[in-house]
Amino acid sequence: MHPIINRFWLNWLTDMTKASKLVAAKKGRILLVRRRRDKLWMFPGGRKRGGESDRKCLQREIREELPKLKLGAVTLWKEVKGKNRKTGRRMSDSIFVAKKASGRLKIGDKKEIDKVAWRKLRGIRLTATSRYIRNKLFPK
């Protein structure tokens, strides 16, 4: 492969934000966390670190964000790919669904998250990715 093309592909591949998100439901409500910086609600999870699998990323993020949360079986639902309209950055989120979730909702990462709750998904401000997940998994 030509060096310029090779460098283009390497930049293209490494310029993608990859993350894992969790969807957990309980008594008709969904587990959500609220970002401190913009007050938008989202599904728990976060960005992958180098060499991490999607599942390991999710496990680490849940431990960091919600250390007292206990999850039952977790299965991959879908990988969502898109482009952030504000930054132009390409994104790829692996969405996992938990069959069961229990434990106290204690925030571990207070720099990023200011609230956690079991919420109804309508009538609240969600991140773009969380709106997409809501609309696919929980249509009106």
Automatic annotation (TrEMBL):
This is Nudix hydrolase domain-containing protein. Keywords: Hydrolase. Residues 1-140 form the Nudix hydrolase domain. Its cofactor is Mg(2+). Gene3D superfamilies: Nucleoside Triphosphate Pyrophosphohydrolase (3.90.79.10). CDD domains: NUDIX_Hydrolase. GO terms for molecular function: hydrolase activity. It comes from the Bacteria. Signal peptide: none annotated. It holds the Pfam family NUDIX.
